[in-house]
Amino acid sequence: MVEIEPDPFGPEVSVEGAWLINGAAPSAASCDAVGITDVRVRVLDGAGSWIDRSLTFPCAQGSFSTSPVLLAGDYDLVVEAVNRSGGADVLVAAADPMAFRASFGDTIVLGTVDFVVDSVPAGTLQGSWTINGATPDAGNCAGLGIAEVHVQFLDGAGVPDPASTLAYACATGGFSELLVPGSYEIRVVAVDADGVIIATAMDQMFTLADGDTFIINGGAPVDFVGGFNPLGNDAVLNATWSIGGQMSTDKSCDAVAGTSVELWFYAPDDTELTSGVRVVMGAPCGDGVFNSGTPLLAAGDYLVAAQLLATGGAVISEVQTASPVTVGAGTPLDLDLDFRLDSSTVVAFFEWESRTAAGTYTDCATAGVDAMRWELFFDDGTAGGAFVAGQDRGMTVACGEEINVMSGVGGAPLAPGDYDVVIEGYRGGFKSWDPVGICSLTIDAAGGLGLSTCAADYNP
C-alpha cells in the first residue's frame, strides 16, 4: 500500500508578507522590466514541497495578508518570483527559506523580501489619442460611445491576438508600455461598453530595440472624430454574397474555409478606408444573406467594404464598393457582394449514391475502395478535353476526401471555363483501379470558384 502524504493546507494559520523589486515598491512597469508576473510562497513541511493558488499573488500587488490557509505545524517557507506568461511557471528569483512553527490561529509574518533582478531587455511603446481634437474625458468619450481604446497586436495574417491586446479607458488619453525588443504590427481601435469595435484608427508596423521608444502615429495623437455614424433608424440593410461566383452555402464556405462575413461602413471621403464602423458582426458565411429586419442605417452616403473571414478572423477575401452608396430614408439598402479568390480554385466533394446489384454503397468501406485518384480536364472543344491537373496512381487521396485544385500543369492558373473531374477508386482486395465518378463544374472568371458534388456511379 502506498501512503499518501497530506498537503499542509487548511483553515488554521494565516500568512502575510511583502516584497520589493530592486529596492522599490513594485509596479506593473517594474515587474514587466524584470520579467516577473507573480510572487508565490512555497511551503516545505518535511514531507514535500507545496505551492497553491491561495499563496500566489500578482507581482505589482506588492504585499498580501491571507485568511487561514495552512494547518498548524512546522514549516520552511520560500518566497519566489516567477514568470507565468508562457503558461508554465518559470522561476526568476527566490528568497532564502524561513523556518516557522505555527499553532492554531497564528499568523506567519514573512516580512519584506527584496528581489534583486537585472532588467530584461525592453523598449517602450507609447501613444495618445484625442476626441475631436480635444483631450479625452468622460463626457466627450461618452459622446462618441467610446469606452476603451485598444492596441491590438497582429499576427502574420493580420489577425489580432486577444491575449496580448492592451486596453485603456478612453478618458486616460494615452499609454506607455514596455515591450520585448522585436518587430510588431499593431492596430488601434475604439470599442464600446460591450467590447464591439466602433472605429478603427490605424495599422502600423515598427521594430523596437532595447532602450528605444516608439511613439505611434508619428508622435501625433490619434484623433477619434465624431460625426460619422452610419447606424440609425432610416433604412433596412439587406446583403447577399457569393464566393467566386458560387452561391454562398455551407459547401462553398467549407471549400474556402470561410466562417463569417463582416460589413464595414466608411465616410465617402475616407477612400483609404482608415476609420470604419462595423455594421454587421459575424454573419454566418453559409447563410449567404443578411437582413436587419428593422431599420439599421442612417440616411447618407457611404463607402462599404465586406470581408470573408476564416476561423480566428483571418481575411480570405475582401470586396468594396467602387463608389459611395446612398442610403435613403425608408428605402432598404441592397448589397450584392461577390468575394473573389486570390487564385481560381476547383473544389469537388464526393458522395456515395451508386446502386448496384449488390445494393447501395454508402461509404468507402462498403464499396471496398481504399483510395482515390483524380484528373481535371478543361473543356476546350476537343474529345475528352485538355488535361489540366491530376495524380499519378502512386499519388492518391483518401477515399471520400475533398479534391482541391488551385493551379494546372506547371503552376498555371486555372482559366475561366468548364471542367470535368474524373475520379477512379482503388480496390486493394482486387489490386485494381475502377471508374468511380465524374462531375462537371464551371469557373466563371478570374478568382472564381468551381464547385461540384460528385455522386459516385460505381459498379465494379
Description:
The protein has 460 residues and is mainly beta. It folds into four domains: 9-115, Sandwich (Immunoglobulin-like), CATH 2.60.40.1120; 123-224, Sandwich (Immunoglobulin-like), CATH 2.60.40.1120; 232-339, Carboxypeptidase-like, regulatory domain (Immunoglobulin-like, Sandwich); 345-455, Sandwich (Immunoglobulin-like), CATH 2.60.40. The chain contains four helices and 37 strands. The strands form nine sheets. Strands 2, 3, 4, 6, 7 and 8 form a six-stranded antiparallel β-sheet that branches. The longest helix is centred in the first third of the chain and has 7 residues, at 28-34. The N and C termini lie far apart (63 Å). 29% of the residues are buried.
Q: What is the strand and helix layout of this fold?
A:
Layout: E1 9-21, H1 28-34, E2 38-44, E3 49-50, E4 56-58, E5 63-65, E6 73-83, E7 90-94, E8 98-102, E9 107-115, E10 123-131, H2 138-144, E11 148-153, E12 166-169, E13 174-179, E14 182-191, E15 197-208, E16 213-215, E17 222-224, E18 231-235, E19 237-243, E20 246-247, H3 250-256, E21 260-266, E22 277-284, E23 289-291, E24 300-309, E25 315-320, E26 325-327, E27 333-339, E28 345-351, E29 355-356, E30 359-360, H4 364-367, E31 371-378, E32 386-390, E33 397-398, E34 403-405, E35 417-427, E36 432-443, E37 449-455
Parallel strand pairs: 1-9, 10-16, 10-17, 19-27, 28-37
Antiparallel strand pairs: 1-5, 2-3, 2-4, 2-6, 6-7, 6-8, 10-13, 11-12, 11-14, 14-15, 19-20, 19-23, 21-22, 21-24, 24-25, 24-26, 28-34, 29-30, 31-32, 31-33, 31-35, 35-36
